[in-house]
């Protein structure tokens, strides 16, 4: 329909699809979790190489028990913002646990990692700031930086020399920031946090790191790479990955957390996390220290998968963790491989632009601590038949 003003109201929607092209178009599909590393699609169980449930905690009976109990005790919702009357003993307890676990003065909960990054960064930087961000950083980090209205530059992925060059060129008197993930969600490689901290110290920059894929998996007691690092000013963790529930948190100094209680819209103007979710997250954080055998198994099995791929000449990029990308190149081809794997009973997602740069479409293979060697065997066999 074209109005009197000659404008087709929804033309931009069709234009967006046109621009993206059919091989990069997304749609929603339904899955149901099954016991073990499986997801059911319709009536077919698929071997899971796609979820971020690295330690299998989303189905853990201990988390299910405390979440059920918290629902009985507190109900299904927190009923208000933390600043009104939605701050229950459970929320305080989880924050105290997180501060202790991270060896920090304080922690604050957020409804999601996306919301944390999107609304914390604008409280740290303004028009007079200059922020440097890794070229492959998560969309929520970019979103937060853009919302801050700061000037910003991308530095080449994990390229500390490039970052230093940019820092050297920064004008004096502006507030500087360095923003990155610690484990990159689509590449599975790690940042050298010490190198970033050295640069942040030398140039007086605020260092803000997102530990979403490291929490529970790497570091002492599964504490990630940034949370306990004394020279990281602000570290964000999420509960939706290895912790098996949902929501997120930030750790920092007491005074920064007090500042956010007064200034961060993503904390002030939103309903507190629901009691069962808080209880599950608390149980996960308390469990993490004792999951060392699971972490070791996860790393061992990831190393095994990378080796199997490299032996066959397949490119898994710079992966060093439980996230193993298999670089395919074009979106169409990545979709074809994913479909063939699915026909063989394996769920491995094709990740396409704009989530990853054009020409680097990939299968994102994600390991979990309940994967066994025979699961890898099944994957590698299916890949050999479906791709190479
Ligand atoms: C998943 C993810 C987020 C978003 O966290 P949610 O709690 O799922 O919103 C933020 N940052 C990174 C690096 C992530 O991988």
From TrEMBL:
The keyword NADP does not apply. One of its GO terms (biological process) is biotin biosynthetic process. It is an enzyme of class 2 (transferase). Its EC number is 2.3.1.47. Coiled coil: none annotated. PANTHER family: 8-AMINO-7-OXONONANOATE SYNTHASE, CLASS II AMINOTRANSFERASE/8-AMINO-7-OXONONANOATE SYNTHASE. This is 8-amino-7-oxononanoate synthase. It comes from Synechococcus elongatus PCC 11802.
């Amino acid at each position: 329909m074209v109005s009197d003003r000659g404008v087709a109201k929804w033309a931009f929607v069709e234009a967006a699809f046109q621009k993206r092209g059919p091989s990069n178009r997304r749609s929603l599909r339904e899955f149901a979790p099954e016991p073990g590393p499986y997801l059911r699609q319709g009536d077919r169980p698929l071997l899971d190489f796609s979820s971020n449930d690295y330690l299998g905690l989303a189905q853990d009976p201990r988390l299910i028990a405390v979440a059920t109990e918290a629902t009985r005790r507190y109900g299904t919702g927190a009923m208000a913002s933390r600043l009104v009357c939605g701050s229950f003993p459970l929320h305080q307890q989880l924050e105290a646990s997180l501060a202790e676990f991270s060896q920090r003065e304080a922690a604050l909960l957020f409804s999601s990692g996306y919301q944390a990054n999107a609304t914390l960064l604008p409280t740290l930087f303004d028009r007079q700031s200059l922020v440097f961000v890794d070229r492959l950083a998560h969309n929520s980090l970019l979103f937060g930086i853009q919302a801050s209205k700061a000037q910003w530059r991308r530095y080449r992925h994990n390229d500390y020399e490039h970052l230093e060059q940019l820092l050297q060129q920064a004008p004096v008197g502006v507030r500087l920031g360095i923003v990155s993930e610690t484990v990159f969600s689509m590449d599975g490689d790690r940042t050298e946090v010490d190198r970033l901290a050295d640069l942040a110290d030398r140039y007086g920059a605020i260092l803000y790191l997102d530990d979403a894929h490291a929490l529970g998996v790497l570091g002492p007691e599964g504490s990630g790479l940034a949370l306990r690092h004394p020279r990281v000013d602000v570290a964000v963790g999420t509960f939706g990955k290895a912790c098996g529930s949902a929501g997120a948190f930030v750790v920092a100094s007491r005074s920064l957390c007090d500042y956010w209680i007064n200034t961060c819209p993503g904390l002030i103007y939103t309903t507190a996390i629901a009691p069962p979710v808080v209880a599950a997250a608390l149980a996960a954080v308390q469990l993490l220290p004792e999951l060392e055998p699971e972490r070791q198994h996860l790393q061992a099995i990831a190393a095994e998968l990378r080796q199997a791929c490299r032996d066959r000449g397949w490119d898994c990029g710079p992966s060093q963790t439980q996230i193993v990308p298999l670089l395919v190149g074009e979106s169409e081809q990545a979709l074809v491989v994913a479909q063939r794997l699915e026909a063989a009973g394996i769920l491995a997602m094709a990740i396409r632009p704009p989530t990853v740069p054009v020409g680097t479409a990939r299968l994102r293979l994600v390991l979990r601590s309940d994967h066994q060697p025979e699961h890898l065997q099944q994957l590698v066999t299916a890949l050999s038949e479906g791709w190479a």
